[in-house]
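Saturday, quiet lab. Running sequence design on the structure tokens for the scaffold JK sent over.
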């Protein structure tokens, strides 16, 4: 690609080269920042809106791996040519990352217009690309932000566009998300929760709650699942569905998990020895080779028997880095810790995972249990899971049991273990101890009779 960088002046040529992406001839991230900085400065006295956007190619790495880096570079050059051709005389497009491009629309003043322009770019990039004698197809995701006031800097605008891009990619391929005031408030709330959670973990304020797991035939409690609960002095009770994903995304999940496991094993070590404790590991913990060491150190510190601990992992966690997950699982099983596959049937390649990994237990997801009474497919799926586990020598627990009729149907199908509100909601360590005292008094009275 021919690009004229200067007019015979070496200093100017060198400056232009420093601001140019050598592969595509577009400006690089430095040129883009400079363009936005200048526009903000020009509109300092009259801050009329303008639009900044970041475009990311969906699935570019697999294409790169399939066709090779030379073909990947050719595609990036074609993408750059299409984007440059789509810009009007006021607008700018630059390459700011491996497969990320940024655009500046000085004359786009509204969220609706920004979304419309972005959809046009996605459409332009969706046409086939020539790769030697073959063709390839790409989609793209776009995040946009609008400049509204002189208080906003280039960095703030681009961070907002990146946040919008993150939301776009989470919602699927070929999507556009424009950063809104509502999204800004949501982002601020996430930051407030993150900061409060960091403080709470440091201060040891996240608590384990315990939900009983029972033998469905006798209704005897055989163990408890540990669930994290957090009440903040300012935010109040924060649901785990809110704070666990934030802990995952912001790198807090390791310390949080270690805190809850330590407290849980301290509480459970004095329970009857035939009761096990079940504990969830997050996907990010299954790529950290220190996870097993942290767990064993906590068990050693609290004096909890590893043979009474069950670790629950999900298919999603396994798929992130199967080799790492397999090593962690084997390290845990070597000391007697049992490993359970959680939420079975809701992930991908379930049967393949059962062949590759050795699990001691499988948990049937609540989605199947909740519809077992009226949905024939759910009934057949549960029957098939139970038959498979019997053949593989695996224990089974059905989650989300809320009605007697569901429990009866599961017993009829041959399911041994159950968990759900029918048998008890998650409660703190003191309430769990009270539950155990009542249960064992009842059992002793039954024996005496």
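Result came back. Writing it out in full:
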């Amino acid at each position: 690609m021919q690009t004229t960088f200067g007019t015979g002046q070496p200093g100017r040529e060198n400056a232009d080269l420093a601001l140019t992406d050598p592969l595509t001839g577009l400006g690089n991230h430095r040129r883009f920042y400079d363009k936005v900085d200048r526009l903000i400065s020009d509109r300092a006295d009259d801050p009329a809106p303008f639009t900044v956007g970041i475009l990311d190619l969906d699935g570019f790495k697999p294409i790169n791996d399939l066709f090779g880096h030379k073909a990947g570079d050719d595609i990036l050059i074609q993408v750059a040519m299409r984007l440059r051709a789509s810009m009007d005389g006021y607008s700018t497009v630059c390459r700011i990352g491996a497969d990320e491009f940024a655009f500046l629309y000085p004359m786009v003043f509204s969220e609706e217009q920004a979304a419309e322009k972005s959809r046009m770019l996605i459409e332009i990039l969706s046409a086939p690309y020539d790769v030697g004698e073959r063709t390839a197809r790409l989609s793209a995701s776009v995040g946009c932000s609008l400049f509204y006031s002189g208080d906003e800097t280039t960095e703030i605008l681009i961070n907002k566009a990146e946040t919008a891009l993150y939301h776009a990619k989470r919602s699927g391929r070929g999507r556009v998300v424009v950063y809104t005031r509502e999204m800004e408030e949501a982002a601020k709330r996430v930051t407030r929760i993150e900061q409060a959670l960091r403080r709470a973990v440091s201060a040891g304020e996240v608590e384990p709650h315990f939900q009983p797991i029972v033998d469905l035939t006798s209704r005897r409690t055989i163990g408890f699942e540990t669930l994290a609960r957090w009440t903040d002095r300012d935010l109040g009770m924060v649901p785990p569905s809110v704070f666990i994903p934030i802990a995952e995304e912001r790198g807090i999940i390791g310390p949080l998990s270690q805190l809850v496991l330590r407290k849980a094993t301290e509480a459970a070590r004095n329970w009857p020895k035939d009761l096990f404790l079940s504990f969830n590991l997050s996907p990010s913990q299954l790529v950290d080779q220190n996870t097993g060491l942290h767990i064993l150190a906590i068990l050693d510190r609290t004096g909890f028997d590893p043979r009474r601990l069950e670790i629950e992992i999900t298919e999603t966690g396994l798929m992130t880095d199967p080799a790492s997950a397999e090593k962690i699982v084997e390290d845990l099983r070597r000391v007697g810790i049992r490993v359970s596959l959680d939420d079975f049937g809701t992930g991908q390649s379930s049967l393949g995972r059962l062949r590759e990994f050795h699990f001691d237990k499988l948990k049937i997801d609540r989605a199947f249990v909740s519809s077992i009474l009226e949905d024939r497919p759910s009934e057949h799926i549960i029957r098939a899971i139970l038959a498979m586990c019997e053949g593989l020598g695996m224990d089974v627990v059905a989650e989300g049991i809320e009605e007697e009729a569901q429990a009866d149907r599961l017993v009829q199908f041959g399911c041994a273990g159950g968990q759900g509100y029918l048998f008890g909601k998650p409660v703190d360590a003191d309430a769990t101890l009270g539950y155990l005292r009542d249960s064992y008094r009842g059992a002793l009275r039954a024996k005496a009779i």
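Notes for JK: The radius of gyration is 28 Å. The chain has a mean pLDDT of 90. Ask whether to fix the surface positions before the next round.
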